[in-house]
C-alpha cells in the first residue's frame, strides 16, 4: 500500500487552469493580440505558455514583461471572484487522510496559492506545500517531486503523484514515482500513456491506495 500522496494543485485540487488562460488572453488582448487556445494548450504541454505566442508575433521583451504583470493581476482578480471549487475534493481528502500522508507540489506562485486558500479547507489535510519559489527547476523536470519526497522522508515506491497534465506526469515519471492522472477538460488531449492510472475524480484514489501492493 502507498503511504504518501503528492498532489499537483491547479486542475487537480482547484479548477484554476481555465482562468489562468483567460487572464493571459485578456492581457494579450490589451495589446491587440488574440491568444489562440489550441496553440496555448500545445505550448503549455511543452512547459511554455501565453508569451510564446506574443514572441512569435514579434512583441518585444519589455512589453511582454509589462503584460505579464498585468496578466498576474487579472489572474488574481479571477481567483478572488470566480468559482474554482472542484466538487468532492475536500471530502475525498478527508477520507484519504485516514490512510496516507499528503502534500502539495505545485508550480503555482506563493501569492496566488495564498489567495486561493484564504477560505478553503484543503490545506488542513496537507503535511506541507511546495510552491514555485521553493525549488529551482520547474516541471517537467523531476526536481519538484524529488524535493517533495525528501521533505516527506519517503521512498519513491511508497509514494503516489496525482497530476492532470503531461508536464506534471513527465516530472513524476522522471522522479521515478507512480503517477495517477485525474481528468481535466483543459488537458484532456495530453499524452498520458505513462500514467499508472487514469481517474475521473479523486474519489477513486482510495481504491487505488488500498489495492496497490
UniProtKB/TrEMBL annotation:
InterPro entries: HAD-like_hydrolase_sf (IPR050155), HAD-like_sf (IPR036412), HAD-SF_hydro_IA (IPR006439), HAD_2 (IPR041492), HAD_sf (IPR023214), PGP-like_dom2 (IPR023198). One of its GO terms (molecular function) is hydrolase activity. SUPFAM superfamilies: HAD-like. Keywords: Hydrolase. Pfam families: HAD_2. It comes from the Bacteria. This is HAD family hydrolase. The lineage of its organism: Bacteria, Bacillati, Actinomycetota, Actinomycetes, Streptosporangiales.
Amino acid at each position: 500500500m502507498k503511504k504518501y500522496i503528492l498532489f499537483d494543485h491547479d486542475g487537480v485540487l482547484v479548477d484554476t487552469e481555465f482562468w489562468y488562460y483567460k487572464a493571459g488572453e485578456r492581457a494579450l488582448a490589451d495589446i491587440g493580440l488574440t491568444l489562440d487556445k489550441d496553440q496555448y494548450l500545445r505550448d503549455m504541454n511543452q512547459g511554455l505558455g501565453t508569451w510564446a505566442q506574443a514572441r512569435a508575433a514579434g512583441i518585444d521583451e519589455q512589453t511582454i514583461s509589462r503584460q505579464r504583470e498585468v496578466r498576474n493581476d487579472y489572474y488574481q482578480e479571477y481567483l478572488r471572484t470566480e468559482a474554482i471549487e472542484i466538487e468532492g475534493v475536500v471530502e475525498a481528502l478527508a477520507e484519504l487522510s485516514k490512510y496516507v500522508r499528503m502534500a502539495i507540489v505545485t508550480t503555482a506562485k506563493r501569492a496566488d496559492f495564498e489567495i486561493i486558500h484564504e477560505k478553503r479547507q484543503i490545506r488542513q489535510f496537507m503535511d506541507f506545500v511546495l510552491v514555485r519559489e521553493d525549488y529551482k527547476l520547474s516541471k517537467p523536470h523531476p526536481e519538484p517531486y524529488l524535493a517533495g519526497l525528501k521533505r516527506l522522508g519517503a521512498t519513491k515506491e511508497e509514494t503516489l503523484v496525482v497530476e492532470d497534465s503531461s508536464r506534471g506526469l513527465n516530472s513524476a515519471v522522471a522522479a521515478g514515482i507512480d503517477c495517477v492522472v485525474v481528468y481535466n477538460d483543459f488537458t484532456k488531449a495530453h499524452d498520458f500513456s505513462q500514467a499508472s492510472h487514469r481517474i475521473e475524480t479523486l474519489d477513486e484514489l482510495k481504491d487505488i491506495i488500498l489495492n496497490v501492493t
